[in-house]
Write a structure and sequence with these properties.
Elements (H helix, E strand, L loop, with lengths): L3 H26 L1 E8 L5 H5 L12 E8 L2 H9 L5 E4 L3 H5 L5 E8 L3 E5 L13 E3 L6 H12 L8 E3 L4 H9 L5 E5 L3 H6 L3 E5 H4 L4 E7 L1 H4 L3 H20 L1 H12 L7 H11 L11 H13 L9 H4 L3 H8 L9
Parallel strand pairs: 1-2, 1-3, 6-7, 6-8
Antiparallel strand pairs: 3-10, 4-10, 5-8, 5-9
Helix pairs in contact: 10-15, 11-12
Length: about 325
C-alpha cells in the first residue's frame, strides 16, 4: 500500500517528468531562426524581446540572437548565409551595388545618433577639418556623418574619417582627444555632458522620421524559409508590443543584455524617449517615402552612384501575410 505522501510525491514526480518531456519535445519541434543585431545598447530590450520565452516559441521558432559591432558586419553575415535576418539601418548603399538583400519591415523610426565633439568644438563648422570617429566605412554612423556634411554644405574630403568598431571605442576616443568628433548613440548624452563633450548635431532633429532599425533578409529567407519568416514577423510584432507595454520588463532586458547595473538609468531614459517620440513600431510598416528621401541624401553625398529601385529593395508580402495570419499559436507535435 502506498502512503498518501508517497503517492503524492509519485504523482508530482510523474507530472514533472511529463512536463519536462513535453518541453523537450516542444523545443525539438522549434525551428531555429538566426537573427542579427548591432551591439546591444540601452534600447536592446526592444530588439532582444523576440528571443525571450513566450514570443518566437509561440510561433514555432527558436530565435538565436547574434550581436555585431556595426550594420556592415551583420549584412556580410546575412549574405554569407550565417543569418536568416538582421536588424539595422536600411542597407541602401550595399543594395545599390548589387547586394542580394531586402527590407521586410521596420521596427524603429528615428535615428538616435548624434555627433559629439571634444571640448573647444561647439559646431560642425568648427569640426569640418577635424578627425571623425564614425564606425566602419559604409556603416550607418559613417554614412550619417557624411550626409551631415552635405546637409551643412561642407566638404567631407577636408575631414579625416577613422574607423572605430563600436560606440564604446568611439566614445573613449573622443574623451581621450584621439579624435575630434565621434558619431555616438544618444544614450551617451548624459555621460558626454559629464565628460565636457559637446553635442554638435543630433541626426533625429535634422533628419526626422528616418528608419533606424529595419529587418533585412536574403533571397533564401524570402524563398525557402518564407513560412518561418512570416512567423518571425508575427513574433516580432508580439514582442515589440509587449516591450512597449512594460517598461520594467524592457528595461530589465536592456540592462541584462548590456551588463548594466540596476542603478544605471540609461535604459529607463531611452525607454521614455522612445515612447515620447513614437520610435518603436510594432506594426513593422516600412516608410518607403523616407527611404526615398534617405536615398536622395546618400546620392547627393556620393555614397550611392545609381538610384536603387525601392520596389525591388522593399518586400512586404511576408509582413502582409503575417498580419493576415490567424491568431492560433504553435503547438508541439
Amino acid at each position: 500500500m502506498v502512503s498518501w505522501k508517497t503517492h503524492s510525491f509519485a504523482l508530482a514526480l510523474g507530472a514533472s517528468l511529463g512536463l519536462a518531456s513535453f518541453q523537450t519535445s516542444m523545443a525539438a519541434d522549434l525551428r531555429l531562426w538566426r537573427h542579427g543585431m548591432t551591439e546591444a545598447k540601452s534600447n536592446a530590450g526592444f530588439v532582444g524581446m523576440v528571443a525571450e520565452p513566450g514570443f518566437a516559441d509561440r510561433f514555432g521558432l527558436r530565435v538565436e540572437l547574434t550581436q555585431f559591432k556595426n550594420d556592415s558586419l551583420a549584412l556580410r553575415a546575412l549574405i554569407a548565409g550565417d543569418l536568416d535576418s538582421y536588424e539595422g539601418g536600411p542597407a541602401l548603399v550595399a543594395a545599390s551595388k548589387g547586394a542580394a538583400v531586402k527590407v521586410v519591415g521596420c521596427s524603429w523610426i528615428g535615428i538616435s545618433i548624434g555627433l559629439f565633439a571634444r571640448p573647444g568644438i561647439a559646431t560642425i563648422q568648427q569640426a569640418a577639418k577635424g578627425t571623425f570617429a564614425a564606425s566602419a566605412p559604409g556603416a550607418l554612423p559613417e554614412l550619417l556623418t557624411r550626409a551631415m556634411f552635405q546637409h551643412h554644405k561642407l566638404d567631407p574630403s577636408l575631414a579625416t574619417f577613422v574607423g572605430y568598431g563600436s560606440d564604446a571605442e568611439r566614445y573613449k576616443g573622443v574623451v581621450a582627444g584621439v579624435v575630434d568628433v565621434a558619431a555616438l548613440d544618444m544614450e551617451h548624452e548624459s555621460s558626454a555632458h559629464h565628460d565636457k563633450l559637446n553635442l554638435i548635431s543630433a541626426f533625429e532633429d535634422e533628419f526626422p522620421g528616418f528608419a533606424r532599425f529595419c529587418i533585412h533578409v536574403s533571397d533564401r529567407s524570402l524563398g525557402t524559409r518564407r513560412a518561418d519568416l512570416i512567423n518571425f514577423l508575427r513574433a516580432e510584432t508580439s514582442a515589440l508590443s509587449a516591450a512597449k507595454a512594460s517598461k520594467e520588463r524592457e528595461v530589465a532586458l536592456a540592462r541584462k543584455m548590456t551588463s548594466a547595473k540596476d542603478s544605471d538609468a540609461r535604459a529607463a531614459l531611452v525607454f521614455d524617449q522612445a515612447l515620447k517620440r513614437n520610435n518603436v513600431r510594432p506594426d513593422l510598416s516600412v516608410p518607403v517615402d523616407r527611404l526615398q528621401e534617405w536615398q536622395d541624401i546618400l546620392m547627393r553625398s556620393g555614397a550611392i552612384d545609381k538610384a536603387l529601385d525601392l520596389t525591388k529593395f522593399v518586400d512586404t508580402d511576408a509582413l502582409s501575410a503575417a498580419k493576415a495570419a490567424p491568431t492560433e499559436v504553435f503547438a508541439a507535435k
